[in-house]
Design a protein that fits this description.
alpha/beta, Rossmann fold, 7 strands, about 15% strand
Length: about 260
């Protein structure tokens, strides 16, 4: 498993740790998989503050996915860069078809813990190769979850990837987290992914520029740390967490963008 793929254990650890506390995110699968994999986490990756942040991020993505499924009941769901995440089980709104996608060696590990069925399957896919999008099934409306993926693609790669999705699907609803250019540069010196050997990340300051001419538009920016989730922390933890992960400083590093097919 290469360095980028190893980063999947950081959110897995965070979700497992927080799930055991019965706050923010209920994820028994993360607890079970983390126990079985026993990947050596060290340094900043073991921070309880990062664990809270990873769990909140996952919960925000979960809640958004459920809202989109209520709105688009017949949509295809694509979770690209799924790692060992169990969103397909955490989301309680029924779905017609869900495909979890990641690189081949990740999918191989994933198949030890998840079983395919009529409306759920796993597929190897490299987001840096837009041509692979054509192997995905057809759908009039597609909900795309891109959590922890964009920062490993250059702007050109990300634009090519989003363009291939838009070319294939009539209506797209996408939620993706991005580093800013400042955040990507700062990550060289202080980022948990450094602990597993990742040294190169990419940032975006202007999402409109990346998607210009692709038939996509920015719908809105979301918060990684909604107050109702932050308030589930104990008072002292809550106060310190707010200093680290909320406010303007954090937004200068890391942002959460919703994108959709542009309406005529």
């Amino acid at each position: 498993m290469n360095e980028v793929n190893k980063t999947l254990f950081i959110p897995l650890y965070g979700k497992s740790t927080v799930s055991k506390q019965h706050i923010i995110l209920s994820d028994p699968d993360a607890e079970r998989i983390w126990e079985a994999e026993s990947f050596p986490i060290r340094g900043k990756s073991k921070s309880k503050w990062l664990a809270y942040n990873m769990a909140m991020r996952a919960r925000v993505f979960d809640d958004w996915t459920e809202r989109m499924l209520r709105k688009h009941k017949d949509a295809l769901v694509l979770h690209i860069g799924c790692g060992l995440d169990s969103r397909c089980r955490r989301v309680k709104v029924p779905y017609r078809e869900w495909i979890d996608c990641d690189l081949p060696d990740v999918i191989a590990i994933r198949k030890n813990y998840f079983d395919e069925c009529e409306n759920y399957r796993m597929q190897a896919l490299d987001a840096s190769d837009p041509a692979q999008i054509q192997a995905l099934p057809e759908s009039d409306t597609t909900i795309v979850v891109l959590e922890g993926l964009s920062m490993y693609l250059s702007k050109a790669q990300l634009r090519g990837f989003l363009g291939a999705l838009q070319e294939k699907y009539g209506m797209l609803c996408i939620l993706m987290d991005i580093y800013t250019e400042f955040g990507a540069k700062a990550s060289k010196y202080k980022n948990p992914v450094n602990d597993v050997g990742v040294t190169k990340l990419y940032g975006i300051d202007d999402m409109e520029d990346v998607i210009s001419g692709l038939g996509l538009q920015v719908v809105r920016e979301h918060s990684f740390t909604p107050p109702e989730l932050v308030n589930e922390l104990k008072p002292l933890d809550r106060a310190f967490f707010k200093l680290l992960f909320t406010g303007r400083v954090y937004r200068k590093i890391y942002r959460l963008m919703e994108i959709a097919t542009a309406r005529a």
